[in-house]
């Protein structure tokens, strides 16, 4: 009878979590809880979405489009029970660089294409592997993004006026901002400080109040009431539209696609990492378990939908997702309702957004960047070991001074090298005569054979470390026995080293024995040519002694 369990399990990897929630039973009490959670998240997302959009070099309305359309699709089609999608601070540097390079239309096209990249990643089940990014890499790039976000807000925090576009790279940006120091506006700094103190104070004294929304509203009232000379959303962008635009495909010409593709891959890579990290945070807070590949598919569809309605790249957002869990969400409906609440706010209160000072939104993002910088984790990694310190510092510096994607890729490679080094150090080849209790003490006196015990996974890193020992063993023309009982796996490089050792031992008149090898380890050895009579497999040491006791023909 054919086994249909495995295909069923694989197909379940792509089922949106909302189907699971509805299958479990969804009642009025669940809807009430999700409505409260959705409203709570929407109040947080409203100022944040506009602030991130402005910092990214686009109009505030596009941040709302992204949160409304993309956020709805992330919750409806994703693989996490509590994920909240929308524009993320981590994308500010990439989005602003994209806008400066290929314009807003190019940004929308890059977002559209990134959706298909994410769909392909989900279909190829790459979500499982993205979760293996080393912790020092995530800390390094998150801390680097925090620095970049704060740097992007200095102009509005101090009310500076630049003669031209603000550079995207950190060093030219600081140079341009310093050159514009004479345009400093004290009123802007006062508004930003009011926003920061309000958010920090409410978080300490009234943690359940929507600090960001209250701060933005208070700053808007103060700026309008006192007639402060500060730049507002209305003075810079005009009145916000009441509804998202009708869906439309971006321009799909060959040159446009060629220019947008590099950004599309960067958006997809960062979006996949950010959303899966956010889903893991939600799992840790709630005890649920997300479907990583379904989450990538949902993120892909959400980016396509966001681009069709004039939004930009959308991903799972850690802070808003955590707020959703803490607010008592029962499932993806709260995320869908959060988007509908944002749509309602846009429909009803769009004219009021014109009074929001940009300095207030800069204060909001300054707080976000401070909270985003993993200061304690960064310091702990720097102190823990030289390997972790190297990975987190290199990743951080590359993200800040070079490129976000480059920082992730190089950090991941360095993290892999550190892991390989640590794993190779954990592998040992121990003479049996030195292992207390495993063999008879007289083992060291045997002249017809030498026994070595291998500990740990034997892979290419370990093969390089242990190669010199194996070479010395092969110089002795006796029977050489390796106990593989504590070797859980061996890769092709490790297996190949024993095939070569068998040849070397045979040329010197010796025999190579492997005892206690697991079936999967033995198959790997055989696949690389380590087979009889070159290498002799025996179940235990007694079998080797019986073999050696037979007269040589």
TrEMBL record:
**What is the scientific name of the source organism?**
Neotabrizicola shimadae
What membrane topology does the annotation report for this chain? Answer: Multi-pass membrane protein
Which stretches make up the STAS domain?
Answer: 439-551
Q: Which UniProt keywords apply?
A: Membrane, Transmembrane, Transmembrane helix
Protein name as annotated: SulP family inorganic anion transporter
A single GO cellular-component term from the record reads: membrane
Domain of life, per lineage: Bacteria
Q: Name one Pfam family in it.
A: Sulfate_transp
């Amino acid at each position: 009878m054919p086994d249909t369990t495995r295909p069923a399990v694989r197909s379940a990897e792509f089922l949106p979590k909302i189907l699971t929630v509805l299958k479990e039973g969804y009642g009025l009490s669940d809807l009430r809880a999700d409505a409260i959670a959705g409203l709570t998240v929407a109040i947080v997302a409203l100022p944040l979405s506009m602030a991130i959009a402005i910092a990214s070099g686009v109009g505030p309305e596009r941040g709302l489009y992204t949160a409304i359309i993309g956020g709805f699709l992330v919750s409806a089609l994703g693989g996490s029970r509590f994920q909240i999608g929308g524009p993320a601070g981590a994308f500010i540097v990439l989005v602003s660089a994209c806008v400066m390079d290929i314009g807003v239309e190019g940004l929308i096209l890059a977002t559209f294409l990134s959706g298909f990249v994410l769909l392909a990643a989900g279909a190829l089940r790459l979500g499982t592997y993205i979760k293996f990014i080393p912790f020092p890499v995530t800390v390094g790039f998150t801390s680097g993004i925090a620095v970049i976000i704060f740097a992007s807000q200095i102009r509005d925090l101090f009310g500076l006026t630049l003669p031209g576009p603000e550079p995207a790279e950190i060093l030219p940006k600081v140079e341009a901002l310093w050159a514009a120091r004479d345009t400093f506006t004290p009123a802007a700094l006062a508004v930003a400080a009011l926003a920061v103190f309000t958010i920090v104070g409410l978080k300490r004294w009234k943690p359940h109040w929507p600090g960001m929304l209250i701060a933005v509203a208070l700053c808007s009232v103060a700026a309008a009431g006192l007639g402060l000379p500060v730049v507002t959303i209305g003075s810079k962008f005009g009145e916000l539209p009441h509804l998202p635009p009708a869906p439309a495909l971006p321009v799909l010409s060959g040159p446009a696609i060629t220019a947008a593709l590099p950004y599309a891959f960067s958006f997809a890579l960062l979006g996949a990492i950010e959303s899966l990290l956010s889903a893991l945070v939600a799992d840790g807070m709630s005890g649920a378990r997300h479907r990583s590949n379904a989450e990538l598919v949902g993120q892909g569809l959400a980016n396509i939908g966001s681009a069709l309605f004039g939004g930009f790249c959308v991903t799972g957002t850690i802070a808003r997702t955590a707020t959703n869990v803490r607010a008592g969400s029962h499932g993806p409906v709260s995320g869908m309702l959060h988007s509908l609440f944002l749509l309602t706010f846009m429909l009803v209160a769009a004219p009021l957004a014109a009074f929001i000072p940009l300095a207030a939104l800069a204060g909001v993002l300054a707080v976000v960047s401070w909270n985003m910088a993993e200061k304690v984790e960064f310091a702990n990694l720097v102190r823990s070991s030289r390997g972790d310190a190297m990975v987190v510092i290199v990743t951080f510096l590359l993200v800040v001074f070079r490129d976000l994607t480059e920082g992730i890729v190089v950090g991941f490679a360095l993290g892999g090298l550190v892991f390989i080094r640590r794993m190779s150090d954990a592998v040992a080849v121990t003479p049996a005569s030195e292992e207390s209790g495993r063999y008879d003490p007289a083992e060291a006196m045997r002249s017809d054979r030498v026994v070595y015990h291998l500990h740990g996974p034997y892979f290419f890193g370990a093969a390089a470390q242990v190669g010199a020992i194996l070479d010395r063993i092969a110089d002795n023309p006796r029977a050489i026995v390796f106990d593989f009982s504590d070797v859980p796996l061996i890769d092709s490089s490790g297996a190949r080293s024993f095939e070569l050792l068998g040849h070397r031992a045979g040329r010197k008149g010796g025999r190579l024995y492997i005892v206690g090898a697991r079936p999967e380890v033995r198959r790997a050895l055989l696949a690389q040519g380590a087979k009889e009579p070159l290498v002799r497999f025996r179940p235990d040491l007694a079998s080797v002694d019986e073999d050696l006791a037979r007269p040589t023909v």
